[in-house]
Design brief:
Blueprint lengths: L1 H26 L2 E8 L10 E9 L5 E7 L10 E3 L15 H9 L7 E7 L10 E6 L4 E5 L5 E4 L1
Antiparallel strand pairs: 1-2, 1-5, 2-3, 3-4, 5-6, 6-7, 7-8
Length: 154
């Protein structure tokens, strides 16, 4: 019983140590996120195992790191990089990657995808971030991450 309680306490300490780091990552201004796929041609949201994030750090520097999607766990150490041009901070969005992929699956834009990313281009008139899903057919499927409106372009 003592061994079980010791393991339980160690697990609690490990989780408590991880939670502040995870919540800090979500409050950092997001610039973009790019999906990491478990297979070259994914056909479901479950095959997106995590994301490579680019965030705005302190003193306007940019950082990149990888974070796994649950139920997988893991995160790489943030690394400073040059800030990408042509995108702005994503304040919030309503459509997550699973919903974007569900919309992709309902279209005739290809049966599988080779990439998925979220960003908000610095373009006049664009006020929402967009999910971009690269189809195996070479088409780009875009989803407005606020409204869910989607298009498929060659």
């Amino acid at each position: 019983m003592k061994k079980f309680l010791g393991v339980l306490l160690a697990l609690f300490v490990a989780i408590a140590a991880f939670v502040p780091a995870a919540s800090a990552a979500t409050t950092t201004p997001l610039l973009s996120k790019t999906g990491v796929l478990s297979v070259p041609e994914a056909s479901s949201a479950e095959q997106v195992v995590g994301f490579n994030y680019i965030v705005l750090g302190r003193d306007d520097s940019c950082m990149t790191y990888y974070a796994a999607n649950p139920p997988l766990i893991g995160m790489s150490k943030p690394v400073e990089i040059p800030c990408p041009l042509g995108i702005v901070v994503i304040d919030n969005y309503n459509i997550d990657y699973k919903q974007a992929i569900a919309l992709f699956e309902k279209t005739n834009c290809g049966g599988a995808f080779t990439g998925i990313s979220l960003s908000q281009p610095l373009v006049p008139g664009i006020i929402n971030p967009f999910w971009t899903i690269d189809s195996v057919t070479g088409q780009a499927f875009s989803v407005n991450a606020d409204t869910g409106q989607s298009t498929c372009k060659s």
